[in-house]
C-alpha cells in the first residue's frame, strides 16, 4: 500500500469506485467486530491504515488521515473509524493513546460517530496494528453505542483466543 497514487493523480480513496465514503453507523445492520490484524498489505480489523477522509461538511474537501479498521464486510470492503489527535473527552470518542501511526507521538482518539466504508484499493498504506486490549475498548464502545457485536472471526482470530475475549466482553453487557 505504501506510496499509492490513484488513477486521477490524488490520494487513494478520494475518487471513483474505491472512494472512501462516510456511512451512518446505525444503517449497516449486524456488524461483526473482530480483532484480526495480518500484515499482508490489505486492511484488516485491528489495523490502522491511511486513506482519504472527507471533511464533515461533505463539500468535496478532506485529507489523508489514519483510520482504525474495525470490521470486514462480506463484499470485501471494510468499516473504519476516524482517528484524531485533537483531545476529545465526550461520550463519542475513545482514547487509544499514542502509537506508530502518528510520527509526532501524539495521543489519539477514535471518533465513534465517524464511520467510513473503505475499499482495499482506496488506502494509501498500512500504519500499524493496534494492540488487542485497546481494540477491545473500541469494540466495547461500538457495542454500547450502536449495538455492534463480536461476529464470526476468521480462523486466525479464533485460533488466537481473541474471540473468546470478545464473547466474554459482550456477553457480560
Description:
- The chain is α+β, with helices and mostly antiparallel strands and 173 residues long.
- The chain has a single domain, classed as SH3 type barrels (Roll), CATH 2.30.30.
- It has three helices and seven strands, in the order βββββββααα.
- Strands 1, 2, 3, 4, 5, 6 and 7 form a seven-stranded antiparallel sheet that branches.
- Strand 3 and strand 4 form a beta hairpin.
- It is globular, with a radius of gyration of 15 Å.
Name a few traits of the molecule.
30% strand; 3 helices; single chain; 173 residues; alpha+beta; 7 strands; disordered C terminus; disordered N terminus; seven-stranded antiparallel sheet; SH3 type barrels
Structure in a nutshell:
The protein is 18% helix and 30% strand. The protein has 173 residues and is of the alpha+beta class.
Question: What are the SSEs and their pairings?
Answer:
Blueprint: E1 21-23, E2 47-54, E3 62-72, E4 78-84, E5 93-97, E6 108-118, E7 123-129, H1 132-146, H2 155-160, H3 162-171
Antiparallel strand pairs: 1-6, 2-3, 2-7, 3-4, 4-6, 5-6
Structural class call reads: alpha+beta
Distance between the termini: 38 Å
Tally the structural domains: 1
For the residues shown, what is the average pLDDT? 79
Number of helices: 3
Tell me the series of helices and strands, N- to C-terminal.
Answer: EEEEEEEHHH
The level-1 CATH class: Mainly Beta
Largest sheet: 7 strands, antiparallel
Gross CATH architecture: Roll
Radius of gyration: 15 Å
Helix content: 10-25%
The coarse silhouette is globular
pLDDT under 50 segments (min length 5)? 1-8, 152-173
Amount of beta strand: 25-35%
